Amino acid sequence: DQQVKQNSPSLSVQEGRISILNCDYTNSMFDYFLWYKKYPAEGPTFLISISSIKDKNEDGRFTVFLNKSAKHLSLHIVPSQPGDSAVYFCAASANFGNEKLTFGTGTRLTIIP
Amino acid sequence: SAVISQKPSRDICQRGTSLTIQCQVDSQVTMMFWYRQQPGQSLTLIATANQGSEATYESGFVIDKFPISRPNLTFSTLTVSNMSPEDSSIYLCSVEQGGYGYTFGSGTRLTVV
User: What confidence score (pLDDT) does residue A41 get?
Assistant: First the structure.
């Protein structure tokens, strides 16, 4: 049972445009969500998080939106840069991050120069 | 955030043998986590390792197959025992970093032949 789903395995975006990566979850106990970026041969790197008490969190070019009623979150990257090309994982946890992380399967983002 | 040194970075092993993966953190942490990422799959938690106590394994993972040691607050090892080709994966250790989310090691890419 995949509790965290990233339905787009890959996404290509022109440099300078907005990249939107989507994530859906099924477990209503999840209340803390994170996005990670992973380059080949490296471990995942934490990008941004959001708790269920908020519906938006912004950090520089990265913004995460949470729609609790739809059990959906998205990561917006604007403007997209070539260095953003990587695999992006969303992850979710219960108890405001005190429970284990459940990861999605990842979306490979390619930024086209 | 913490810096994690994980080794080996990759290895090719014969079936039936065992491999021990080491994780060294540059600061003391209470819990360390071991994940597996099979080809094309998401990161799956294997076990949580607390210093001074037995590791807690997730469903589908057993101590005989994946013994874990946690001798102090900065170090842990994961052994993949009696390997088969199905164990070919990337193995990652991780620590929780509060507001930084979770920090991951660079991973160990294991190929079993």
Answer: 79
| B83: pLDDT strictly greater than 70 | yes
Residue A29 — pLDDT band, cuts 50, 70, 90?
A: very high
Nearest to B32 by CA among B1, B73, B91: B73
Contacting residues of B for A4, CB less than 8 Å apart? 42
Please indicate whether, in this complex, the C-beta atoms of A43 and B109 are within 8 angstroms of each other.
no
Q: Does the beta-carbon distance from A104 to B4 stay under 8 Å?
A: no
Annotate A88-103 with b (16+ C-beta within 10 A) or e (fewer): bbbbbbbeebeebbbb
Kindly report the average pLDDT of chain B as a whole number: 92
Q: Calculate the CA dihedral of residues B99, B100, B101, B104 and round it to 10 degrees.
A: -160
**Closest Cα in chain B, distance from residue A14 (Å):** 25
